[in-house]
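Summary for the steering committee. The consortium agreed at its last meeting that each partner would contribute one worked example illustrating the joint modelling workflow. Our contribution is presented below. We chose a case with several input lines so that the handling of multiple components could be demonstrated. No manual editing was applied between input and output; the record is shown as generated.
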Amino acid sequence: MKYQEFFEIAKEKGLTSAQIILSRSKATTIVSFNKSIDKYKIADDQTVIASGIYEGRYGSCTTDHLEKSTFPWLVDQIIKAAKTNGQESKIDFFEGSPKYAKKNVFKKELALKTPAEAIADLASLEEMARAKDDRITDFMAEYMYAEDYRELYNSKGLNLRNKSNYYLYAASAFANDGENKKSWDSLIWGNDLATFSKEKMVNEVIDGLFKQFGAAPCKSGQYPTVLSHDVFSNFVEVMVGSADAESIQKESSFLVGKLREKVASSKITISERPLDKNQLFTSFDAEGVARQNRDIIKKGILQTYLYNRETALKEGVETTGNAAYRGGKIATAYTNLVVKPSKKSFEEMIAPIKEGVYITTIQGLGTGMNETNGDFSCQATGYMIRDGKLAEPLTLITLGGNVLKMFETIKDIDSKREFLPQGIVCPDVYIKSMSIGGK
Amino acid sequence: MISKSLIFAILNAALATGADYAEIFYEDTDSEALKLDNGIEEPAAINKSNGLGLYLVKGVETAYGYTADLSKKSLLSLAENLAGRFSGERLFTVTSIEKKSHRTVTKTTDPVIEVPLEEKLAFLKRMNDGAKDYDPRLIRIVVRIASSTSTRYVVGASSETAFLSKDVVSRARFSAMAIAKDGEDVETGYAAPGITGGWGYLTEHFDPYEVGKKAAKKAVVMLGAKECPSGRYPVVIGNGFGGVLFHESCGHPLEASATAKGLSVFSDSIGKQIASPLVSAFDDGTIPGAYGTNNIDDEGHETQRNQLIKDGICVGFLVDPVNGRRINTESNGASRRESYQYQPTSRMSNTFIDNGKDNPEDIIKDTKLGLYIPDFGGGSVSPATGEFNFSATEAYIIRDGVISEPVKGCTLIGRGAEVLLNIDRVGNDLEIAPGTCGASSGMIPVCVGQPTIRIKEITVGGRGGKLE
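What follows is the complete predicted structure of the assembly.
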């Protein structure tokens, strides 16, 4: 087996089981700003997670080196960490699932683009944008190409690997509305270059930028509120993250006691799809368990919590294959969330709203969210909705609410299904009423 | 550190196509975090990070690359690939390296990471007890101590003789998170001091029991709190971590990474009034023991005490060498990065509003109806628009000059340029508090700070209707 020497040293030093996860990511990033190259970055990241069981306790360490000379050090650190562990491990390392999905998501053609071609793409994005509207004061564009490799080996003989690559293009335009500077961004990433359209990106940036001119706060109050798919995706992440079984078992989540209960409007179905054929495809989790596509919320009902093998054992259920390494131990994570869209257009969805608010950006949810009880408050921008149509732009407003209540009072969703940067596909949603702070 | 001959080879390969500056950043960092979750020891998180970043500059254009593969082949390949970014003739060849000395504002002989685990676990248990003893309604207590020692070398070459700077910095941050529950009401409290220094300094200046108690108190106080009213009204912000307001609303927009490209609301503000005349502010990377302190910045230059605002007038930016070229200003020891994986740029260190003349009690006493916020969870800002937000983790209504009922779910939003002008009282109780600041060059340790201040009117978001 690869790294056989590591496993031999581990055994010699008294580890009863051991595992190595090696992640390598190579990326080139180019950023242009006002017609010159502002950043040119070549990244070569390597992360090694070495773990083992010593005297019945789990320990681990991370580093960016995996050479033979580091093996004794890695094992010593695993032992040191295991000695600090106050609990005996109830599970051993995993021997393997019966079957792992196989998909080739590494697209060789993505690697063929040269830096010079990418720089030409960035220049043409800027030229097209400035040609369309000469009020643009500054323009920034970014290209990135990345290759990711992940391998897992353990002393039970498990040997798994994934390989993927993707591209990213982003653009930001800036302009001044006479009083304040405004900016708008557009970003696309994926592993199919055919999905990238310069024209579409430029149009999105320009449309988003100039529609904000003259934005002001609205009056504080309760409003029917529409969240853009981009904004809503942040709350989808909070909702799914709160289904972490360890947080549930430690009573630190607002989803405690909600399994197979209604946690959202019946219009909401959220699934986790790690096996979809895109750059996020991953066939195994951090314990080597085979990943599966599954519904997390179906027609508003919470279908499952997210388990690793240890938290699953505590409840006598099967792991959901969501194990992820975090902060010295195995926690959980999710990959590629999809919120099922409706067939309604955005215009049809907002048509019944007499006076409401459409939120297009939020800031500060990271610190404004109480993940234990789901209460949140954050900064927002967007537009008024008047008589079923978008009206004047809004800025410097706040959006406040509670995640559970928000999901339960979703009145409608539209048909949007764009792949967002954080790996979520979701529509715009219309919420019955939310608290908006402004004038 | 890599060999001297390899340093020459890397720099000279990198400079082959006309870059006028090449810089090697070599880092070897050990870190460790210990945690008790409800009193039970969790396995330690142990990490070693060892790699090299290579930075090339030609005029104001840059190229940056990094790797943990420290073989000669890998490093020369990185240098050649980065050199490919430019096309031109070599300007010079590096033939010698001179060691650059620096004054010492922080030196640690007893790094926390080297303290026996048993001592640190005993420290955590005291912190856990401080929270646990406070109130029976606490359902979860998580205490943690994270420490690191980082050795960093910078070799910078703008001529035949390169300079070499080296520094070793040790830090520690410890935290308590407490969750309290009463019926359906669940609230969280958090406290997290941090230092640059060693175990002796830490144990001399902090009582872990009190840190645990502080987190517990915050969680318990918020149980039963009503929702915060929304609208525009006076807000008194407490000293210490309240300074995150200045950090977000003014500190980030004064970083040359934003101002030099004309992307900050303060780009053209030197010599202009940007704050109330009551406000003077500094960024000081030299405060002994403070979490954002360094002897040298991450491009090898001595850190400084930089005045940003004097009596309301903008007098300086935080400047890294490349952005300094854009605005024709000397860099001032403010170039920072999280690790070798990040291109350095201008960042804050310990940033604070200086003391004013008011007694903090008088500021409260003179506020008829408003909000008092002693602590924030954090915030963010868009330097381009200056629009910021902060979330309070502890807040109270002030009624007739008295701190009254607690309220929850408060967010402050506004534009930096407007809020700084709206400060109408500045106290004399300056304190600084640690935090972790995230921006383009990664997550870095900083301090924010201020005395108690009052903003005469600011937009407050919350779900509690109108303030009455």
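Chain A has a mean pLDDT of 95. The two ends of chain A are 66 Å apart (CA to CA).
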